[in-house]
């Protein structure tokens, strides 16, 4: 009976040499393609950062550098962007210029987005980011502020209202995701957040797939409204850098579990809350999220904007500005809790 080693030599002899060489050559080409894609993606990311340098200031909190802009004077208004966004999401919408006429507007690049750092040793939940921004605002001598959060940023705004109530005078929550519901996009988009394989993906194939899918996702975010020309000022290549792709994937993975943890606390929000959402949001179900939150938060009003999707601040900028004014003026008696407005 032949030995195992002899059997392996016999089996190996049946594999044509050309096939063995073909497999080896294919493996070499595959590795070379991955290495080339890493270099291309790094160069593209560096070019995007040169083309879009920091336009604001930096503040260091717990050893992390946060990039922010500040405009205007008056009561503080803090804007927190959603997943995959950055400061330019708000500046391109025109909301910063409008609000700066009467408020001290502070807009952050959240950790891992734009020009802000995102240390790998921290799990950047909504609560962790809320604590970070509370400390940053304290360093900036902001004692009271209206907080506006869009999408993922809305949950950070809620966490600020729950964990740092003395600092939050009112909340504006735009197009938020507050309750755990099935999301097919989570499994698709969370890949780059996985250990090891996620780093490989974010530096190789994910930027390419992102460029291919970006037009589709952008249309879906705005639908049914058209994409406004002002959104052309949003630096799309910055969003496709490996570092930001990984940050985006990590936040996608946290979305459902964070909502599961936070949902029991919403009734504890005791400051004025204005909830605003597009009635035809294709990313977040407005009825299951914003309308339900309105029922759970006693001091809330709901502004449901007809003909508008997820990017309500871009396509209904005046309505969002009105929501800010309503929230900021709530302590003067201009807020009517439990009301619902359709525009």
3D structure, described in words:
This protein is α/β, with parallel strands linked by helices. The chain has two domains: 15-49; 52-342, Rossmann fold (3-Layer(aba) Sandwich), CATH 3.40.50.1820. The protein is built from 13 helices and nine strands. It has a nine-stranded mixed sheet, with helices on both faces. A hairpin with a 2-residue loop joins strand 1 (57-61) and strand 2. Helix 5 crosses helix 6 (152-163). The longest helix has 35 residues, at 17-51.
Keywords:
343 residues, 9 strands, Rossmann fold, 2 domains, 15% strand, alpha/beta, nine-stranded mixed β-sheet
CATH class category name of the largest domain: Alpha Beta
Radius of gyration: 24 Å
Helix count?
13
Number of domains: 2
Pick out the low-confidence regions: 6-11, 334-338
User: What is the element string, with H for helices and E for strands?
Assistant: HHEEEHHEHEHEHHHHEHEHHE
Percentage of residues in helical conformation: 40-55%
């Amino acid at each position: 009976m032949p030995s195992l080693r002899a059997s392996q030599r016999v089996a190996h002899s049946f594999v044509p040499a050309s096939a063995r060489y073909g497999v080896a050559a294919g493996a070499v080409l595959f590795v070379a393609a991955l290495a080339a894609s890493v270099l291309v993606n790094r160069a593209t990311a560096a070019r995007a950062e040169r083309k879009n340098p920091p336009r604001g200031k930096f503040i260091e909190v717990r050893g992390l550098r946060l990039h922010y802009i500040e405009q205007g004077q008056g009561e503080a208004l803090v804007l927190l962007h959603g997943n995959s966004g950055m400061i330019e999401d708000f500046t391109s919408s025109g909301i910063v210029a409008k609000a700066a006429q009467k408020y001290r507007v502070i807009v952050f690049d959240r950790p891992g987005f734009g020009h802000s750092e995102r240390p790998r040793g921290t799990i950047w939940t909504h609560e962790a980011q809320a604590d970070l921004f509370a400390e940053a605002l304290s360093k900036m001598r902001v004692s009271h502020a209206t907080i506006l959060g869009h999408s993922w940023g809305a949950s950070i705004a809620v966490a600020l209202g729950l964990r740092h109530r003395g600092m939050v005078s009112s909340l504006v929550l735009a197009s938020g995701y507050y309750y755990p519901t099935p999301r097919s996009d989570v499994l698709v988009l969370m890949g780059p957040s996985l250990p090891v394989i996620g780093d490989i993906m974010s530096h190789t194939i994910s930027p390419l797939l992102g460029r291919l899918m970006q037009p589709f996702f952008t249309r879906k975010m705005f639908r049914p409204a058209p994409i406004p020309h002002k959104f052309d000022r949003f630096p799309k290549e910055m969003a496709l850098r490996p570092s930001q792709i990984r940050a985006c994937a990590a936040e996608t993975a946290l979305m459902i579990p964070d909502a599961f943890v936070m949902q029991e606390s919403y009734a504890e929000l005791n400051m004025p809350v204005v909830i605003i959402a597009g009635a035809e949001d294709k990313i977040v179900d407005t009825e299951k999220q914003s309308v339900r939150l309105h029922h759970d938060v006693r001091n809330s009003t709901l502004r449901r904007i007809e003909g508008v999707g997820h990017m309500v601040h871009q396509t209904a900028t005046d309505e969002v500005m009105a929501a800010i004014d309503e929230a900021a003026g709530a302590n003067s008696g201009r807020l009517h809790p439990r009301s619902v407005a359709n525009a």
